[in-house]
Design brief:
The complex is a heterodimer of chains A (about 350) and B (about 475).
Chain A lengths: L3 H16 L7 H6 L7 H10 L5 H4 L13 H15 L4 H9 L2 H20 L14 H29 L7 H13 L22 H28 L12 H26 L7 H27 L5 H18 L6 H22 L1
Helix pairs in contact in A: 1-5, 3-5, 3-14, 5-6, 7-13, 8-13, 9-14, 10-11, 11-12, 12-13
Chain B lengths: L12 E4 L3 H11 L5 E4 L16 E3 L15 H12 L5 H20 L4 E2 L12 E4 L3 H15 L2 E3 L2 E9 L2 E9 L2 E5 L3 E4 L8 H8 L7 E2 L8 H7 L5 E2 L5 E7 L20 E3 L18 H9 L6 E6 L14 E3 L2 H8 L3 H14 L34 E13 L2 E2 L6 E4 L2 E8 L2 H4 L11 H20 L1
Parallel strand pairs in B: 1-2, 1-10, 2-6, 10-20, 11-17
Antiparallel strand pairs in B: 3-5, 4-5, 7-8, 8-9, 12-18, 13-17, 14-15, 15-17, 16-17, 19-20
Helix pairs in contact in B: 1-4, 1-11, 2-3, 3-11, 8-9
Classes of the chains: A mainly alpha (about 350), B alpha/beta (about 475).
Chain lengths: ~350, ~475
């Protein structure tokens, strides 16, 4: 069934396809010019190729007050919102967070209460450092399912998404091309390499690319830190806490710093960006998620810095609660864009290889 | 609205207009450390005149240059120009535009303009035309940003109403800004404010009432006030005042400002009828880029200035997608009804046409010689029976791109008056393009003229101060 966003996107893309001036900006426009008509799944695919760089809006001679009133970045962002809900599982929960981003904050409060209750109700009898406040086994019992169950639910939706956009079996070349585009954020380069128009309107900058990658690299470093900790714990029988010059800390501290810096940076950029050029509820949900991610990183860093003080149990509760919230919200938050985007870029790479063959 | 709190009423150079030619002139003059004020009649959202709708500029190059392949020599370029204008050009000025175009490519890049390879569907231009990445508005954004950074004073909604001229000297320039009539006393003036194609009454004087049904593809702000004002004050004119460049476009387009998307490339593969469902011209005479201007004129001479291009499902994917979906019918009768054409007549004319088609090889990419036999008017190429439902129809109307009437200039872009060359008045862009384009049109050449003479005007005006 077509959403109103899909129908409006269809109207706009038809006009774009008769113009094609933006062809060189990004993968989304490249795809548009390969087609003559746009069905819903194609529009979903194009929308998820769009990185909201806004180049096509500022270059467009048909934006409001012109009667065509094109606003491609916005309508594609609306389609993406729709994608987020449509391919989440269960949909009803997804809607709760997409329509009312504040609900994310309530999850945080509930998580915090739950963590505090567990800390008080199940005090460990042995253990050092953090494990004196909450035992390793209790942590594992909470966080492993909190991480895995939502993620598994999400993969169901992702698979459906992949089928709907017409994805085929993935070859190494598709994957490496998709990863290359994600890693370079080529679609935020403007096609000319000057960057995107996100926060400086008619002018181009690389700030959004850098801010995004500060967050993304920080996130990957923290992920690596957690993994290294798990390996040290189970393989080498070295439980936390770890010294500063250990693998978990040398990965985790810069990772945390990068996330905090990146989140603040991105938040600043979003404040300067024109709000009319993206879906407003989508933008709010993104905001909340940015704060949450920042909180995970900041509380982690504080825990490292102030772990020896009296504040430790409070900070630990805050950190664990924010991580728990983060895990639970993975399928319903901005986090999903990483998966949708990567799949879409891989699909785009597949399309390219078909075209090259013909 | 004005970006500046204070207005400099005595700038070294006053630029009238806000398109590519105006901005190129303003930036060039500013780089000579002169004070420059730009008066753009349109509001900020519509700034840039017809440049907003452009997509490329034609550029000479002796070797591969950026996005341009092979080479495009001065003589080749001039030959192309002589062909389309049927030698109705000023060769000296034309050669200046052509020769300087190569360095304008670099100039544009230095000032933030970015190019992209020839757009899909326009491969025939990859050797001759450099496409602006994002199109004309992106080019304007780059030039405006550059001008702003350099300290050019920009005013929007600033309509110039009158230039006070005594002898060969412009003394004052009057403009409406924020509902106030303001008087400027610049040392030099550059006019780059376009033609008069948005002045429907003006078009009616040349075309009669038929012009009321014309669609203006470009900005509604090119009303020719400045051009008329100067022509009324002894400036010499060039170009046929009764002529405009009009092409056949989608009849459902907006009255103004529809730009590139209004183009329709289906005519060669179709049968075109007027409102009585009569054919009136050979649809397959030549490749479409060589015929669309003729069709603008042909349709202007039909009743109500409307025609309908009819194709069937065999041809629907042979041309660039249209801005609006075609009108559709599962039978000729249904299509006729949906287009409000007489059904019997349409069915009959298609029957006659189909019967006149002969067997042969149909090739949409070249003149395939597949013509009708014994049909009047003949269709010389791509004559294939229209009999595979569903059927599609597009209404067509004349779309005016620009007018030919302009100011006569010399090699330094200086405006010429009956009393001799003007001391402090230069012109660039569409307002003087008639000096070079006497008739016809060469894709992307308007921007070449605007850029080259914009820069010359900027230099000359700056040197004068």
């Amino acid at each position: 069934m077509s959403s109103s966003a899909h129908n409006e996107a269809r109207r706009q893309l038809q006009i774009c396809n008769a113009c094609r001036y933006c062809e060189g900006y990004c993968a989304a426009f490249h795809s548009i010019t390969q087609l003559r008509t746009f069905d819903d799944n194609t529009i979903t695919h194009i929308a998820n190729l769009c990185h909201n760089c806004r180049g096509c809006f500022y270059a467009c001679q048909y934006t409001d007050p012109h009667e065509f009133a094109l606003n491609v970045p916005r309508v594609l962002s609306e389609v993406r919102s729709h994608t987020g809900m449509e391919y989440s599982w269960p949909k009803s929960i997804a809607r709760l967070f997409h329509r009312f981003p504040k609900n994310m904050a309530y999850i945080m409060i509930v998580s915090l209460a739950a963590i505090l209750l567990i800390m008080i109700g199940l005090p460990p009898t042995t253990g050092k450092g953090f494990y004196a406040i909450m035992s390793h086994n209790v942590m594992l019992t909470i966080f492993l399912p909190a991480f895995l169950i939502p993620l598994m639910g999400f993969t169901v939706g992702l698979r459906r998404y992949w089928r709907d956009i017409g994805g085929r079996s993935i070859r190494i070349s598709h994957l490496s091309e998709g990863l290359r585009q994600a890693a370079t954020l080529e679609n935020l380069s403007g096609g000319h390499g000057d960057g995107c128009n996100f926060e400086r309107h008619e002018r181009f900058t690389h700030q959004r690319r850098y801010a995004h990658h500060a967050i993304a690299c920080g996130f990957l470093l923290c992920l690596a830190s957690t993994l290294s900790g798990t390996i040290l714990h189970y393989v080498f029988n070295q439980p936390a806490p770890y010294p500063v010059f250990s693998l978990p800390k040398t990965l985790g501290i810069p990772g945390g710093l990068l996330i905090v810096i990146g989140c603040l940076w991105m938040h600043g950029l979003k404040k300067r960006a024109h709000p009319e050029l993206s879906d407003s509820s989508h933008a709010k949900a993104d905001d909340v998620f940015l704060w949450l991610l920042g909180l995970v990183a900041l509380s982690g860093l504080l825990l490292f810095g102030l772990g020896h003080t009296i504040l430790m149990p409070t900070l630990l509760a805050l950190h664990l609660a924010s991580v728990l919230t983060f895990f639970l919200l993975i399928p319903y938050s901005k986090m999903t864009h990483a998966f949708f985007r990567l799949l879409t870029l891989v699909k785009h790479a597949q399309g390219k290889s078909i075209l090259n063959k013909n | 609205m004005s970006k500046h709190q204070t207005i400099n009423f005595q700038p070294d150079i006053l630029v009238v207009g806000g398109g590519n030619a105006a901005l190129t002139a303003a930036i060039t003059a500013r780089k000579f450390r002169k004070t420059v004020v730009v008066l753009e009649a349109a509001p900020c959202a519509y700034r840039g005149g017809n440049s907003r709708h452009t997509r490329n500029f034609r550029c000479m190059h002796r070797a591969p240059l950026g996005v341009l392949s092979d080479q495009y020599s001065e003589d080749e370029f001039l030959d192309d120009l002589l062909k389309v204008t049927r030698c109705n050009t000023n060769e000296t000025l034309a050669r200046i535009a052509i020769r300087e175009s190569e360095s304008m490519y670099h100039w544009m890049e230095e000032h933030g303009v970015r190019f992209q390879p020839s757009l899909s569907g326009t491969l025939s231009l990859s050797q001759t035309n450099a496409f602006f990445l994002g199109g004309g508005k992106a080019l304007l954004n780059a030039l405006y940003a550059t001008a702003e950074d350099l300290g050019v004073e920009l005013h929007y909604d600033a309509e110039v109403t009158h230039l006070v001229i005594s002898g060969t000297e412009v003394n004052d320039v009057y403009a409406h800004i924020n509902n106030q009539e303001l008087q400027f006393k610049p040392s030099s003036v550059i006019v780059a404010s376009g033609g008069f194609q948005a002045d429907i009454d003006g078009l009616c004087r040349a075309w009669g009432q038929a012009a009321r049904n014309f669609i203006i593809r470009g900005t509604p702000f090119n009303k020719g006030q400045v051009l008329n004002n100067l022509l009324q004050q002894n400036m010499l004119s060039v170009g046929d005042p009764t002529q405009c460049h009009a092409v056949a476009i989608d009849g459902r387009s907006p009255k103004f400002d529809g730009g590139i998307v209004t183009r329709l490339d289906c005519v060669p593969f179709s049968v075109v009828v007027n409102h009585k469902a009569e054919r009136f011209y050979d649809e397959g005479e030549d490749l479409w880029p060589k015929r669309y201007a003729i069709w603008g004129r042909l349709i202007a001479h039909q009743q109500d200035q409307i025609a309908y291009s009819i194709i069937d499902s065999q041809s629907i994917n042979l041309f660039m997608p249209s801005v609006f979906p075609p009108v559709r019918g599962d039978s000729i009768e249904e299509l006729a009804q949906n287009l409000a054409l007489p059904a019997k007549e349409l069915a009959k004319i298609l029957q006659t046409f189909n019967a006149a088609c002969r067997a042969g090889h149909f090739d949409p990419n070249c003149l395939d010689g597949l013509g009708t036999v014994g049909l009047k008017p003949q269709k010389s190429n791509w004559a294939r029976p229209i009999d595979q439902p569903p059927f599609y129809g597009y209404p067509l109307r004349p779309g005016v791109t620009f007018t030919y009437l302009g100011l006569k200039i010399d090699e330094s872009a200086r405006v010429e008056s009956r009393c001799g060359p003007m001391a402090n008045l230069w012109a660039a862009g569409e307002i003087m393009a008639g000096s070079i384009l006497g008739e016809g049109y060469l894709a992307g050449f308007g921007m070449t003229i605007g850029s080259v003479f914009g820069r010359i005007a900027g230099q000359e005006a700056a040197r004068h101060v």
